[in-house]
Specification:
The protein is an alpha/beta fold and 133 residues long. The protein has three helices and eight strands; from the N terminus they run βαβββαβαβββ. A four-stranded mixed beta sheet has the order 1-4-3-2. It has a four-stranded mixed beta sheet with strand order 5-8-7-6, with helices on one face. It is globular and about 40 Å long. It starts with 6 loop residues before the first strand and ends in an 8-residue tail after the last strand.
Amino acid sequence: MEPRISMITLGVKDLKASTAFYKNGLGLPLNDQFDGISFFTLNGTWLSLYPLNELAADAKVPAARTGFGGITMAHNVESKEKVDEIIKKAEKAGAVVTDPPHDRDWGGYSGYFADPDGYLWEIAWNPGLKIGG
């Protein structure tokens, strides 16, 4: 296996609402939308949204999701102000802020929100991480 993730697929309860959240609420570029699936182009990977029950059936696992799923996704940005901006934008689009942005013990600044299906996103500024180029 090569060291890369080419696509992250989220199983969602309401494809139309989740697509609107990521496209209109967060401003992610919708690459294509087929009947029953949405694809967003990210830098270096894709994000896809697929109906939860169908994704679970495809993987041969139960569709039930309860509590913390043991995974978060992170989006690193170039400043504390950008963390605040994105968290506010997500909340305005319908996300639930689970941990407001604040200084972290590890020296950075971050906050968490849950998307309409409860998937957790961390928006973080890390002074030791160069963003872009």
